[in-house]
Recover the amino acids of this structure.
């Protein structure tokens, strides 16, 4: 996983090495294998790195890393899957004095030869990085296309005392004496709506997440914090709509299998033990099948099981593992084991986060770490291949809602909302068993109120936003808050397509 942190500005009267080590040690869980710090007191720059060694386990992969010319200093978190291809391309252009075979060294050499923008356009992978240019005295931060790797940043203090802090986790920034950021109540409203705080916001005022597919360059002279995109999902959607696949269904299947096989194969490059999370669903099963097809030995797979049949996917995962011939490990989790994770959550996450899968995800990661260092998973399969239930429900709901005039829908919503949820539930209790679908379950009033909110949707995108909202309007829950715009609410940030399902998939991506 790895982690990075650092500052640009003053060390607040402290020894830079000790300060950087303290900041880095807050994220030791991201990089337990080794640590490194680098600083230039005159320039007011300090970089700290915690390493989880995956490719090139030798000292040649140590960070922060100096470029071959000595001009650049680099701290990197992630993996560049096509780094061997990039090395070959670079070797054809310039004579590169390679020290080892890490992907960190590859990306740094590409940046030195081609510039940051061109290197990132050609790199395939997940990453966050900090690059210090010793000649220009500028700091460049970067984050991968879809924001798989986290990166926080922000200025603290003012004038000559201003310090620019950055890092993989908020706890690293908080270790610097200059950190004084209060809680951002507007961001807290976002948390109440979506169970997480979307980029560019964080739980602290003045501290941002770098937006995916972007870089940010700052210096003590130019303190701007406006990210520049090197990749935009809107461009990808527009290109896909303008140039649809022209082959038959069979051609599409073959082309997709080739792409997925190549992608999975690239992500299997590691000098450490490798495994996969296996739920038994389509996404993880397909990935494990492609791993096994390219592996010389049984792939190690890991599953969390539950005694409650309605939540237990371990049976399906075991059947898939048996069919594919993997080296399978499963752990059945008791309610107490799940409860025991809860006190650890504030240390695992630096800001409020309420994804319902966070406890089983931690437990399966803990299980896998006993045998492997890297695990592949099926994340993002639903966004890419239309797997979420809301893609079907949303389209059907809008098809029915759009037939009703908006004034009629508004009147129905007001009528439902005029009666408190508890009163609705009491009213329907005698006949609850006769009601259809979800209404036959408890809390009928809550479901009716959520349905009433949906009735007020004026456009398909408004309906989608309600489907992905936990609480609306969220700023009513946080006194004095105004919910800030995100890609889910700001039309200017969204891809354009007339297909509602495609639009939902693009927004989820």
């Amino acid at each position: 996983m790895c982690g990075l942190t650092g500052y640009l500005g003053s060390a607040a009267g402290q020894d830079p090495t000790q300060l950087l080590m303290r900041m880095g040690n807050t994220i030791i869980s991201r990089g337990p294998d080794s640590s490194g710090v680098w600083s230039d007191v005159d320039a007011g720059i300090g970089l700290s790195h915690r390493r989880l060694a995956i490719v090139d386990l030798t000292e040649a992969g140590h960070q922060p890393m100096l470029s071959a010319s000595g001009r650049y200093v680099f701290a990197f978190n992630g993996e560049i899957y096509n780094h061997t291809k990039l090395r070959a391309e670079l070797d054809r252009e310039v004579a590169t004095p390679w020290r080892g075979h890490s992907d960190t060294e590859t990306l740094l050499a590409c940046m030195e030869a081609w510039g940051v923008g061109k290197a990132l356009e050609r790199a395939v992978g997940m990453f966050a990085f900090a690059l210090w240019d010793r000649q220009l005295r500028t700091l460049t931060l970067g984050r991968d296309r879809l924001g798989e790797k986290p990166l926080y940043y922000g200025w603290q203090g003012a004038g000559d005392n201003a310090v620019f802090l950055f890092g993989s986790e908020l706890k690293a920034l908080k270790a610097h004496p200059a950190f004084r950021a209060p809680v951002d109540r507007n961001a807290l409203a976002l948390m109440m709506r979506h169970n997480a705080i979307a980029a560019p916001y964080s739980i602290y005022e003045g501290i941002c997440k770098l937006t995916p597919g972007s870089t940010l360059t700052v210096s003590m002279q130019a303190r701007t914090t406006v990210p520049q995109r090197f990749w935009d999902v809107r461009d990808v959607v527009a290109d896909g709509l303008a140039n649809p696949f022209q082959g038959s269904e069979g051609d599409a299947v073959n082309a997709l299998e080739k792409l997925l096989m190549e992608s999975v194969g690239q992500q299997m490059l590691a000098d450490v033990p490798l495994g996969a999370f296996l739920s038994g669903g389509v996404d993880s099963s397909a990935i494990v099948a492609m791993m096994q097809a390219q592996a010389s030995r049984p792939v190690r797979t890991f599953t969390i099981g539950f005694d409650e049949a309605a939540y237990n996917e371990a049976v399906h995962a075991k059947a898939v593992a048996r069919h594919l011939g993997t080296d399978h490990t499963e752990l059945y989790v008791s309610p107490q084991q799940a409860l025991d994770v809860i006190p650890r959550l504030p240390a695992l996450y630096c800001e409020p986060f309420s994804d319902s899968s966070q406890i089983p995800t931690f437990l399966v990661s803990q299980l896998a770490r006993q045998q492997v260092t890297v695990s592949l998973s099926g994340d993002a399969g639903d966004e890419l291949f239309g797997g979420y239930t809301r893609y079907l429900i949303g389209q059907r709901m809008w098809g029915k809602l759009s037939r009703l005039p908006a004034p009629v829908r508004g009147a129905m919503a007001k009528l439902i909302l005029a009666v408190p949820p508890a009163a609705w539930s009491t009213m329907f209790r005698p006949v609850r068993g006769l009601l259809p679908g979800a209404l036959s379950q408890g809390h009928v009033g809550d479901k009716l109120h959520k349905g009433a909110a949906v009735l007020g949707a004026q456009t398909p995108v408004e309906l989608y936003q309600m489907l992905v909202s936990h609480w609306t309007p969220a700023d009513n829950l946080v006194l004095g808050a105004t919910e800030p715009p995100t890609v889910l609410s700001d039309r200017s940030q969204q891809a354009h397509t007339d297909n509602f399902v495609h639009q939902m998939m693009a927004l989820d991506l």
